[in-house]
Amino acid sequence: FVHGRCIFDNVFIVQAAMDWIVECNQVLTLLLFDFEKTYNRITWTLITKTMLPMDFS
């Protein structure tokens, strides 16, 4: 829980981005991470090492 924020804020942002992509006929891979509070033991180094073999850059 984050005081002053709604759980649907992130959903709205992603939905708006996806709507724009469809309207503009764009191709995009969207990958969002929000581990700051819940999973504070996950490091960006681990995430990067995991994603690079899958051709994410």
Question: What does this 3D model show about the protein?
Answer:
Helices cover 40% and strands 0% of the residues. It is an all-alpha fold and 57 residues long.
Unreliable sequence segments: none
Shape: flat
**N-to-C span:** 31 Å
Order of helices and strands: HH
How many structural domains does the protein architecture include? 1
- Amount of beta strand: under 5%
Radius of gyration: 15 Å
Count of extended strands? 0
Helix content: 40-55%
Write down the oligomeric state.
single chain
Number of discrete helical segments = 2
Largest sheet: none
Integer average pLDDT: 76
Structural class: mainly alpha
Q: TL;DR of this structure?
A:
This protein is mainly α. It is built from 2 helices and no strands.
Element layout with pairings:
Elements: H1 9-23, H2 44-51
Question: Which features would summarize this protein structure in a list?
Answer:
57 residues; mainly alpha
